[in-house]
Amino acid sequence: MKTLCVYILHCADGSLYVGVTNNIERRIIEHSIAYNPDSYTAQRLPVRLIHTEFIHGPRTAINREKQLKNWSFKKKMALVNGDYELLTRLSKKKFRR
After folding, report:
1. CA dist., res. 92 & res. 70, Å (int)
2. Domain ranges of the chain
3. pTM of this prediction?
4. Architecture of the 3-70 domain
5. What are the pLDDT digits (tens) for 25-59?
6. Opening angle at CA 78, ends 31 and 40, nearest 5
7. Could you count the other beta carbons within 10 Å of the beta carbon of residue 79?
């Protein structure tokens, strides 16, 4: 089964970018040189790799990428910082009363 890398980049404007690739080294270079000048990261250079997860299977990796893209900035940063207590609190659904 193929292993893919789900990754998070920290952009110069303070935003985060989530992606998936089969070659993290090549992909970081592509982001750094604005290989695709119309891409999100090309307008926010430099970028810095702050998180990686190696996942078996393309479907599982793509699902994880989608999951992370839907997370808030705070939740992504809790993951990056290994703050699993905060991550758990941010994951709890808040119900209106």
Report:
1. 14
2. 3-70
3. 0.91
4. 3-Layer(aba) Sandwich (3.40)
5. 999 999 999 999 999 999 999 999 999 999 999 99
6. 25
7. 19
